[in-house]
Amino acid sequence: MDYRRIWHQGGTYFFTVNCLQRRDNTLLVDHVENLRSAIQSVKTKYPFKIHAWVVLPEHMHCILELPDNDADYALRWRLIKSTFSKSIANVEYRSDIRIKRNERGIWQRRYWAHLITDEEDYQAHMDYVHINPVKHGLVSRVQDWSYSTFHRCVEQGIYPMNWACGENSLGYSD
Questions:
Q1: pTM above 0.90, yes or no
Q2: Using CB atoms within 10 A as the burial measure, which of 27, 40, 44, 151 is most buried?
């Protein structure tokens, strides 16, 4: 299959990254500190700015901005995924193909990447990232999900603490 990627130096991207096994999987929240450590380790060596991030039990969404002279988000994701994988016990099921390729059975190989095109696109994806725990029924209020940059965004004045409580423009209600 021909996967097209847009490589834009200094670009701001929305990503969705999924665990391989999605059903009844709580791997990412169970090991959220390992994930945070992996992200920070990669970010130190290959800088990027985090605009938004939400970690759900078996997938995550984020908006990242790359440095002006850099378009290599694939390297960052490969390193985040491998660093995280190496930090947890090797107990997951692996197919014969994954065993042959010496791969863990944690992550889907592909991920969704979208280049943010303008302010409206940026805001729509910021909202999508932060509303996701409510959308998936994990909490009834965005503020109740701790594995998210939402609280940082509240501190920065981007969102009010009660954002998306009750009826809102996104069509979600609690």
A1: no
A2: 27
